[in-house]
Amino acid sequence: MTKVRDIDARGTQHCETTALGVLLRHEGLDLSEPMLFGLGSGLSFIYWDSKNMGFPFLGGRVKPFELTRNLATRLRLELLVEETTSPRRAWENAAAAVAAGQPVGLQLDSYYLEYFASKVHFGGHVVAMYGYDDHDAYLVDTDQQGGAVSTSLTSLARARAARGPMTAKHRSFTLTAPKSLPSPQGQIIPAITACADAFLNPPIANLGHRGIEKAGKLVRTWLQRTENPQRDLPRAALLMEKAGTGGALFRNLYRDFLAECTQLLDSSHLRTGHRLYAEAASLWTEVAALITEAGESGDAQCLARAGIVLCDLSRIEREAMQALNCLGS
């Protein structure tokens, strides 16, 4: 068996920040999961629907791997990314990093991983690999999926070769910290203001605070949007609360990031943003509960109430990001 020594195989709530935590702890940098998420400017919103989708999707973070790139830039980490169309070369890239004593991040489709209980295609899933033998790969995934886990090399190859929405071409990556690491505290304000600016000025109406407002209008039609509301509405709510989001569509993570920042920086704008995101997090959980109830009962009034809360959320998050954007003044 080939294995990275002294690995801290700790699973957390979200897949990409779990993998980042493994890679960075091995480099001697131990940051909380909310801090990783916040320094990577991870929070966002998208209302995603198209003709080839069975049901709309509400997303609460930036697109896959953007968080990793943001974090590497902020902390001046050396990010080495390998992509290839060759399964053989893909395995050689990942195995070489582990053999050299470095854990490696892999982006793949979680559907093919044998330890996943819920078989849903998601091509933006990220894990950290820290070992392998002739039959299995040893990975770190979220705490929900078991933390330190293993899957067969065959299943891993299928997961990495998958093509579809959010997939990458056998992407693997490593992170190396510089000898003189910049203070994470010094990167808090740039990370927050970059996130706020993107949220406040989305290029299309499906994103940011405009996307939440749009969701508030369209969620009322969801019972007519599907032939199986008992399946599709509770599943949509489950993805908001349980599918590696940390709860409340990543708002719990961002709330906790802002709370940690208030202990490091004295700012009324920061305290306002934290207070409003604490309110927003509880309201997102309420929205998920209303969507679940609508699917189980068929009661359109639940979706009408969810729409009202979403419109409130659009305003609350806009005000929060406006306050946070003032940190750059």
TrEMBL record:
<protein>
    <submittedName>
        <fullName>DUF4872 domain-containing protein</fullName>
    </submittedName>
</protein>
<dbReference type="InterPro" id="IPR032369">
    <property type="entry name" value="DUF4872"/>
</dbReference>
<dbReference type="InterPro" id="IPR026935">
    <property type="entry name" value="BtrH_N"/>
</dbReference>
<feature type="domain" description="Butirosin biosynthesis protein H N-terminal">
    <location>
        <begin position="14"/>
        <end position="142"/>
    </location>
</feature>
<feature type="domain" description="DUF4872">
    <location>
        <begin position="155"/>
        <end position="324"/>
    </location>
</feature>
<dbReference type="Pfam" id="PF14399">
    <property type="entry name" value="BtrH_N"/>
</dbReference>
<dbReference type="Pfam" id="PF16169">
    <property type="entry name" value="DUF4872"/>
</dbReference>
